[in-house]
Description:
Layout: H1 9-23, H2 28-57, H3 63-85, H4 89-92, H5 96-100, H6 106-134, H7 143-156, H8 160-183, H9 187-204, H10 209-222, H11 226-234, H12 239-244, H13 247-278, H14 280-285
Amino acid sequence: MNEPQYLTPAEITETTIQIGIKKTQYSALNLFLLGILAGVFIAFASEGSNMAAFNLFAKPETYGLGKALAGAIFGTGLMLVVIAGGELFTGNTLIFAGVLAKRIKLKAMLRNWFFVYLGNFVGSVLIAYMMNESGLFNSGANDLGAITIKIASYKVGLSFSQAFYLGIMCNWLVCLAVWMATGAKDISGKIWAIFFPIWLFITSGFEHSIANMYYIPAGIFAKGNPQWAQAAMDLGVSAEKLAALNWNSFLIQNLLPVTLGNIVGGAVFVGGVYWFVYLRNSTKKN
């Protein structure tokens, strides 16, 4: 009889903790470098999905279709992280299951999060800068640059609570994608496990802190180009909203609440719940 090509949910829980233990043992330099790679991979997915769908985003009647198309492309970023290798902060919120199981120290988890988050930021902003310098935002008679600015402006315009809840729902799905990919024993299984939850999260319009490390800096860089800024205003971005798009609004109004929401979505609603269901009693015995 052939062995199943996937793990059960209980087995995924145990495997996730074992993976988390290894992740917390990496050197700070390796965490930072692997974090840069993951930031680059997610940024590539972000710019590619925008390139595919920017003309659909520009029209209300095709906006949803654009989100669906963008979502179909965006999953490539997490596939690269999981299969090629990288350290992604949002997925690493699952390390919390190991903390609950008393097999990973809280300090070790926070150390991992810090260096990975920093690396993700550097990698994402690097691609945002390169995209700005490449001239690709001229695509579609400057419409790609305009949409890049419009997306960034929308994101920094969210209220704290809106960004927080959108962050929770986002990483709930992202960590379920990582969770199921962990349960798949072959590459094709991992790809399909990642594809559908990520497609759903992008189509839904949820907020991912690492993706926003590309989306918003890209918009900040792009608004420095008068043609792209004017094209964004032609799409409805007011002068006030354009002025409000800056590094301070990025960090305080979006990145902070989205990051907190991402932690809750991944650490509590995925890692925490599955630890409670499958390993809580064994942890107590230990």
